[in-house]
Task: structure prediction
Amino acid sequence: MFLGPTRDSQKRVARLVRVVERLLDVSTPSESQTNDYEDNQATADRAIAVIRIIAAALDGLAKAGPSQSLTPTTTQRVFLLAYGWFASIVRTGELIVLGHENGLRHECSASARTVQQYTLALQWLTEGGDPAFDAVEADAERRAYDLVKELNDTGWPIPAGFTMQVPNRPAKSGALEEQISNYKAMCVLYRGGDKLYVPYRLQSGYAHPSYVGAQAYLIPEKGELSPTAVTDTYAHLIETARCLIQAGLAFATLLVDNLLAKEVANAQRALGMEFVLWERLP
Result:
């Protein structure tokens, strides 16, 4: 028996699943007006090439080490946090490539959602500098306090080497701390950011147990079950390639060396599209 009350409701939700995935195809305000790609294998192949170009650039950054030259307004602590986020974006992108190469397109949804959030947060950090870093650190301290309290309340031992033990839970204060803990609050800082938040919100059904998440493996039109997700889009992969380009553009603003910026330009040529960073509202 299929989940849900009626076959008609199954069909409606199945259509919603396709709409949610297709939302990633909609142009964002950061995209050049000339960009119009086809959602097909050829574009997916170019997206994979983009991700591999930027992954190779990440390897070069790692070899250069933490002492590489930074712009005058970039502090070491902002650089290190931004590098960690950039690395996470790129490696998750490689994970999404592996999924697509092994017939797991739909299953990449939750990872693609994470990439989108990290990418905007990376730009937010590079623009915000030390005050943004302070907000991230305060958020980490609140989360660490909550974790320790949860461990104590449930009788779990504190893991060896766990050093983030704060005596009191820091109160949330200021707009930056709200933005790092509330993705929607971060999105609305940017032109068209409310539209950016929509696919993130809708994809929560794939990141958490939900009714919609189950429908990807049901074929209500035929009354059949599917061992693989029913999807005909490469949107998660293509959107991830876009995010890696934008993440590269954001991280490159911290560096004196322009090697990363050059590789991002190469990636854009490989994809056949040009992107810019999201525009911050005044």
User: Anything to note?
Assistant: The chain has one domain: 7-271. The first strand starts at residue 218 and ends at 219. The radius of gyration is 21 Å. The CA atoms of residues 2 and 223 lie 8 Å apart.
